[in-house]
Specification:
α1 packs antiparallel against α2. The chain starts with a helix and ends in a 7-residue tail after the last strand. The strands form 8 sheets. The chain has a 7-stranded mixed sheet, sandwiched between helices. Strands 20-21-23-25-26 form a 5-stranded mixed sheet. A 3-stranded antiparallel sheet has the order 1-12-13, with no helix packed on it. It is globular. It is α/β, with parallel strands linked by helices and 477 residues long. It contains 14 helices and 26 strands.
Length: 477
């Protein structure tokens, strides 16, 4: 295995990868090589309890507007923007996917993010720098979108940092994979835990400090709920914590996500991903009466503390390693089985002496991982405000199940909703089986259900879909 590690490192050097990128990969490879399963047993951790986690709703009224404003004025926004959305059939930046319209303009994720930053800058009269952590494959197109926005200006602080790449590893041998059909697929990102070594190597932490920035708020670009918040910034500043994660109460949809626990040995907050849960502990880990909170991946960090920690570890934090088993071509299950080694950003919580969590409501967690998520975001459940907030009444959404044969890829999805998705205002759930195309002004209500008719089918304009399918339009006697 040591020889195979050296083959990987040689490949990285041949492609002019940095010493930090190589050092990070080498550490991850050796952890994988040691075959440490990395279980976090239930008996070794203590669940977070409501009394351990302050809620935004409880601090809102007592937060001084001056404290809140001052803290946000010392904050930079960092968006993880390296994703291509391959699970939805995209081959470009996921953040360039249209979400909905605002005053007749088509708005993509990146447009809404920029709108949130611009409106917050204007409202609070602060600098609020925005940084995108792009991948090599999202950098050009994402920056073009940013530069095309005539209202967004940022001169002295770079708008992007570029995350590292590393080799995909052949699962059974540990050698770097070779894929002559598409050599780009020989490489993968190291997970969003790479944000720390990328920040370190870029030197941008020093630049931010020189402009009076003390805190970074990091979130995923596909989570439009993660808007700049003066209240949360103020709480973080007052807490004196170095690292804070926004958590939210679990619903059935969140059971598979990571959650935070207290490590009994160290007494520190620790992220436990579901991949680190022993099979014997799975029932307890999924029980929301035992572990009521999940990780939103919205993270606040004090720059001075992060720099100190990164210096201690030469830019590569000792985060738990996640083994992501895939095929070299994600769209071809017959291609070689490989391992992608990754780390999670939230896992850094255990490295800081004074970390904390804060409970936020669902309005701050609106991720889009599938076309089913996009189906809800594009519906009339949401209104995009002039401050670019994705606004809904209660943020409790219908369960949506779309036939993966016809709706998984965005091109197929868009073809079947040429006039937009149906109204979901009265829907408790939506299940579509088979190949259905929708006309204008269609409505789902109750437990809406369309069965597979075995052929392409059509929902005419103005129709209502309930638990019996397309509802008859005459009164029954």
């Amino acid at each position: 295995m040591e020889d195979n590690l050296q083959l990987c490192i040689a490949k990285m050097r041949d492609n002019n990868f940095s010493d930090t990128a190589i050092l990070q990969f080498e550490r991850m490879y050796k952890v994988w090589q040691a075959d440490d399963a990395g279980w976090m047993r239930e008996e070794d951790v203590t669940p977070l309890k409501p009394e351990d986690v302050p809620a935004v709703s409880d601090i809102y009224d007592s937060m001084s507007s001056h404290v809140a404003h001052t803290a946000l004025a010392k904050t930079a926004i960092l968006k993880l923007n390296g994703g291509l959305g391959t699970s939805m059939g995209l081959d470009g930046p996921k953040s360039l996917l249209p979400v909905r319209r605002h005053k007749a303009r088509r708005m993509r994720f990146i447009d809404i993010i920029l709108g949130q930053v611009i409106s917050t800058r204007a409202h609070h009269k602060i600098q609020l720098p925005l940084i995108l952590m792009n991948s090599f494959r999202t950098s050009k197109d994402s920056l073009n979108a940013v530069h095309h926005n005539r209202r967004f200006h940022q001169a002295e602080i770079p708008v992007e940092i570029v995350q590292h790449q590393q080799p995909k590893i052949i699962a059974h041998s540990g050698k770097p994979v070779t894929f002559n059909v598409n050599p780009e697929l020989e490489w993968c990102p190291p997970g969003h835990g790479d944000v720390y070594s990328t920040l370190w190597e870029s030197g941008i932490l020093d630049v931010l400090q020189s402009h009076g920035i003390e805190y970074i708020f990091i979130s995923n670009s596909d989570n439009l709920g993660a808007r700049p918040s003066s209240i949360i910034a103020g709480h973080f500043a007052k807490s004196k914590a170095d690292f804070m994660v926004e958590v939210s109460k679990k619903t059935v949809a969140d059971r598979k996500g990571g959650h935070f626990v207290i490590n009994n040995e160290t007494g520190r907050l620790t992220l436990r991903e579901m991949s680190q849960v022993h099979p014997d502990d799975k029932a307890e880990a999924l029980d929301d009466t035992i572990h009521p909170y999940f990780n939103t991946n919205n993270i606040w960090i004090r720059i001075s503390a992060l720099k100190k920690l990164l210096k201690k570890y030469d830019g590569v934090l000792p985060l738990p390693v996640i083994r992501n088993n895939k095929t070299v071509d994600p769209t071809d299950s017959s291609s070689a089985h490989i391992v992608q080694l990754e780390t999670a950003m939230g896992a850094a919580i255990s490295l800081f002496e004074n970390s904390t969590c804060i409970e936020v409501n669902r309005s701050r967690f609106l991720p889009v991982k599938t076309t089913e998520d996009l189906f809800i975001l594009r519906s009339d459940r949401f209104h995009l405000t002039d401050a670019f907030e994705m606004e809904d009444g209660n943020y409790v959404f219908p369960d949506v199940s779309l036939d993966q044969r016809y709706y998984k890829n965005i091109q197929d999805f868009d073809e079947r909703f040429p006039y937009g998705v149906p109204s979901l205002a009265a829907a408790a759930s939506v299940t579509i089986e088979g190949d259905w195309t929708f006309g204008q002004n269609t409505h789902c209500f109750g437990k809406a259900y369309l069965e597979d008719l075995g052929q392409p089918s059509y929902v005419p304009n103005g129709e209502y879909i309930g638990h019996q399918g397309i509802e008859p339009n005459e009164w029954l006697h």
